[in-house]
From TrEMBL:
Residues 139-291 form the AAA domain. Transmembrane segments: none annotated. One of its GO terms (biological process) is negative regulation of cell division. GO terms for molecular function: ATP binding; ATP hydrolysis activity. This is AAA family ATPase. One of its GO terms (cellular component) is cytoplasmic side of plasma membrane. It holds the Pfam family AAA_31. Gene3D superfamilies: 3.40.50.2300, P-loop containing nucleotide triphosphate hydrolases. InterPro entries: AAA_dom, CheY-like_superfamily, P-loop_NTPase, ParA/MinD_ATPase. It comes from the Bacteria.
Length: 399
C-alpha cells in the first residue's frame, strides 16, 4: 500500500509533492472520476490524498466526499486557486486542508503531516505506528570498526547502493557518524534534512512523516544523512537512534547503518537493533588488535547475534600479515577481504560509489558484489558501462 496519492495533471504540483515526500508518493496523472480510482492506484487505503481541484472542483469534491465516506481516516488535501470559494463545500466533503498552487514543498509537507496526524486516531488499522512489533522488520546491517579511516563509509555506501540495485526501493542508508559523517559527500547528495530533523520532529513516530526526511539518491536508495553541524549530535540520544532504526526497519527491507569509529552511545544503540553487524578493520596489526578488543567487548555485552560478518579492508599480500594471522588474533574466521584499490578514493572524490559506476570489473568491485550477495542472497547488479548516472539498468557481477 502507498500512503500518499497525488491526483493531478500538473507537472509543477507533481514536483512540489515529490519534493515534499522525497519521492514517496504514487501519482494518478489525471483527475479521478471515482474514489475507487484513487484506491486502485494506492493499492488499498491511502493515508493522504492530494487532489488538484483547479479544473473540475465539483468532481474533485465528490471524489473527496467519497473517499472520506469510505474511510474517515483518509486525509484529503485540496489544491485550489480559490480556497475561500470551495472552503465550505470542502469542509462538508471532509477535506482536511486546502492549499493554493503557490504552496512550496515545505508548506505541502506541513499540510501532508497535519492531514496524516489527524487521520491517525480515526484509522488505527491503516496507520503505521512505530512500535517494536510494527510489521515484518527488515534487516538492519550496521558497519562498525574500532578505528577510523578503515573503509566503513566506503563499505556502507557500496553495500546500500548494491542492495538497492538488486532489490529496487528496498534500502535506506543511515549516516550514524553524527559528528563527522560523510555519506552525503560520498553519494554526492545535498540533503535538505538530516537525522537530527528526523528524530526531533514532533511527528517522528509517523512513518510517512519520517520518510519525508529521507533524501532520494539517483539509484533509488533512500538516505538519512548526518547533521551538518557536529554539535547537533549532542541532542540525539541512544533511544532516539533505537526508535529511528526500528521505524526504518518496519518500512525497508534493508537498513544499512554507517557509524563513527569505536563504540559510542549511538553505535551501541544501533547494534541493539542490528540483525547483521559487519565488523570491519584494516589489515594491519593495530587494526586487527582493535577488532579483537571490539569483538570481545561486544561479546561481553551480549550484543552479538549469530549473523556477524568480519570484513578485512586494504588486503595487501606484501603487508606481512596473512589471513591466518588475523583469524588467529581475533579467534574468528574472516568472512571477506577487500583489496587496496586506487579506484576507491577516486570514486569517493567523485561522489559515486564503485557499484554505481560502470566500467570494467576489478577485484574490489567483485568483492563488494560478493558482500551485497551475502545480504541480498542473489547476484548483484552494477551499472552498465556507459550508463553511469541516473540509470538503473545493470549487469550481473560475480557468480
Ligand atoms: N579498499 C580500499 N582501497 C583504497 N582506498 C580505500 C579502500 N577503502 C577505503 N579507502 C579509502 O580510505 C579512506 C577512508 O575510507 P572511509 O571514509 O570509507 O573510512 P571510514 O572508516 O568511514 O572513515 P571514518 O572512520 O573517518 O568515518 C577514503 O579515502 C577511501 O577512499
Ligand atoms: Mg566514515
Amino acid at each position: 500500500m502507498s500512503h500518499v496519492v497525488l491526483a493531478t495533471a500538473s507537472p509543477e504540483l507533481t514536483a512540489t509533492v515529490a519534493a515534499a515526500t522525497a519521492g514517496a508518493y504514487v501519482a494518478l496523472p489525471q483527475l479521478p472520476a471515482t474514489p475507487g480510482e484513487v484506491l486502485a492506484v494506492a493499492g488499498g487505503l491511502p493515508e493522504v490524498v492530494v487532489l488538484d481541484a483547479r479544473t473540475a472542483p465539483d468532481q474533485v469534491l465528490d471524489v473527496a466526499a467519497g473517499l472520506t465516506a469510505i474511510s474517515p481516516g483518509i486525509g484529503v488535501v485540496l489544491v485550489s486557486d480559490c480556497p475561500a470559494e470551495v472552503g465550505l463545500a470542502a469542509m462538508r466533503a471532509g477535506v482536511r486542508d486546502i492549499l493554493t498552487p503557490a504552496a512550496d514543498a515545505a508548506e505541502m509537507r506541513d499540510a501532508l503531516t497535519r492531514a496524516a496526524q489527524l487521520a491517525r486516531p480515526q484509522t488505527p488499522t491503516t496507520g503505521l505506528p512505530l512500535t517494536p512489533d510494527a510489521g515484518p522488520a527488515g534487516k538492519v546491517i550496521t558497519v562498525v570498526s574500532p578505528k577510523g579511516g578503515v573503509g566503513k563509509t566506503t563499505v556502507a555506501t557500496n553495500l546500500a547502493v548494491g542492495l538497492t540495485r538488486t532489490v529496487p526501493h528496498s534500502t535506506v542508508l543511515v549516516d550514524l557518524d553524527l559528528q563527522f559523517g560523510d555519506v552525503a559527500s560520498a553519494l554526492n547528495l545535498d540533503p535538505e534534512y538530516s537525522l537530527a530533523d528526523a528524530v526531533h520532529n514532533p511527528a517522528r513516530r509517523d512513518t510517512m512523516v519520517l520518510k519525508t526526511f529521507l533524501t532520494l539518491h539517483e539509484t533509488g536508495l533512500y538516505v538519512l544523512c548526518a547533521p551538518e553541524s557536529p554539535a547537533a549530535a549532542d541532542g540525539i540520544s541512544g533511544d532516539d537512534v533505537g526508535r529511528l532504526l526500528q521505524a526504518l526497519a518496519s518500512q525497508f527491507q534493508y537498513v544499512v547503518v554507517d557509524t563513527a569509529p569505536g563504540l559510542n552511545e549511538h553505535t551501541l544503540a544501533a547494534l541493539d537493533q542490528t540483525t547483521d553487524p559487519v565488523l570491519l578493520t584494516s589489515m594491519d596489526v593495530p587494526g586487527v588488535r582493535g577488532l579483537r578488543k571490539e569483538l570481545d567487548t561486544l561479546t561481553d555485552l551480549g550484543m552479538f547475534p549469530e549473523g556477524r560478518f568480519v570484513l578485512l579492508n586494504f588486503e595487501d599480500p606484501a603487508g606481512g600479515l596473512s589471513i591466518a594471522d588475523v583469524e588467529a588474533t581475533i579467534a574468528r574466521d574472516v568472512d571477506l577481504t577487500l583489496p587496496r584499490c586506487p579506484a576507491v578514493p577516486a570514486s569517493v572524490n567523485q561522489g559515486i560509489p564503485l557499484l554505481q559506476l560502470g566500467g570494467k570489473k576489478n577485484p574490489m568491485t567483485r568483492q563488494l558484489g560478493r558482500l551485497v550477495e551475502r545480504f541480498a542472497g542473489v547476484p548483484t547488479l552494477v551499472a552498465r558501462p556507459g550508463r553511469r548516472r541516473g540509470r538503473h539498468r545493470g549487469v550481473k557481477v560475480g557468480a
